[in-house]
């Protein structure tokens, strides 16, 4: 790399290894550690079900691996936790309750798709989001059949393979399942987010969703809770759904892409594909609050 003096026009040689940061041993060790951790994250598996081809169009479902983060404690005393109002004093306190937070916008024609077709797509996608993230049969009981039934037959085959116990980390991108060792609270999860229709890359009708959901858990010892987000786990999932036509196996709803982040969670459970609050892993710092506008890092908070 070369640099020049604006006034004299003199150009001298600048070597990146001469940067003062790179001469600091502590900085260098930290940079190497971060690079190693990021490389491990990149090496994690992605889920891709069987590829189906229809009229030259390859239809595949791809998923980006789950990233997790725990929000570190701020200064001062932690907020008190009320088991009867688990979301009090958190960002989620004013969000909608449960399925009331999954609201489709008013349907309008998109590309060559009529408003009626868009409305039907919104209804299908809304049901998929509610079932995958809020239905207690799925979240608490791990009964996935109600979710599988919503998708095109060809996708159901891949989903059953995904949930056969060998791919739980990737499966978390499709459905939220509470860790068997943690109990959900009676309070409905808090939800905020949106969906929007567009024409997909292959000309199909696509609905993009972006929902953040806060799940309250019932601590065995409420007095041990250090703050509200010790018992509240937060998940954000951005999913692209498509409504396709064609053969009987292809026709219907597809989940094409899914990206997720978790905050204020137990990392051990998350790495196994399950959701549990930070309290389930007392060695981690308590989360006091969160900002859904700030993306979580794949390496922050959870130990290697």
UniProtKB/TrEMBL annotation:
The keyword Membrane applies. The chain crosses the membrane at residues 53-71. This is Uncharacterized protein. It comes from the Bacteria. Keywords: Membrane, Transmembrane, Transmembrane helix.
């Amino acid at each position: 790399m070369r640099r020049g003096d604006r006034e004299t026009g003199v150009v001298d040689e600048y070597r990146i290894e001469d940067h003062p940061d790179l001469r600091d041993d502590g900085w260098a060790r930290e940079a190497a550690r971060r690079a190693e951790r990021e490389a491990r994250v990149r090496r994690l598996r992605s889920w891709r079900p069987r590829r189906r081809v229809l009229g030259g169009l390859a239809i595949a479902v791809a998923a980006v691996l789950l990233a997790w983060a725990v929000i570190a404690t701020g200064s001062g005393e932690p907020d008190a936790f009320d088991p009867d109002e688990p979301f009090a004093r958190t960002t989620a306190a004013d969000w909608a309750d449960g399925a009331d937070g999954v609201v489709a916008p008013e349907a309008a024609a998109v590309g060559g798709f009529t408003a009626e077709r868009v409305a039907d797509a919104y209804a299908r996608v809304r049901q998929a989001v509610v079932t995958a993230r809020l239905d207690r049969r799925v979240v608490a009981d791990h009964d996935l059949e109600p979710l599988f039934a919503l998708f095109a037959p060809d996708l159901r085959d891949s989903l059953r393979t995904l949930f056969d116990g060998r791919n739980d980390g990737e499966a978390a991108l499709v459905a939220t399942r509470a860790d068997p060792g943690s109990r959900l609270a009676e309070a409905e999860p808090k939800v905020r987010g949106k969906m929007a229709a567009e024409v997909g890359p292959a000309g199909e009708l696509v609905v993009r969703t972006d929902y953040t959901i806060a799940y309250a858990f019932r601590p065995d010892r409420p007095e041990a809770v250090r703050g509200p987000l010790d018992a509240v786990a937060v998940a954000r999932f951005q999913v692209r759904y498509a409504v396709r036509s064609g053969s009987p196996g292809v026709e219907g709803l597809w989940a094409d892409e899914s990206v997720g982040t978790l905050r204020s969670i137990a990392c051990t459970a998350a790495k196994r594909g399950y959701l549990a609050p930070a309290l389930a892993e007392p060695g981690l710092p308590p989360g006091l609050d969160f900002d859904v506008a700030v993306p979580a890092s794949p390496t922050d908070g959870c130990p290697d």
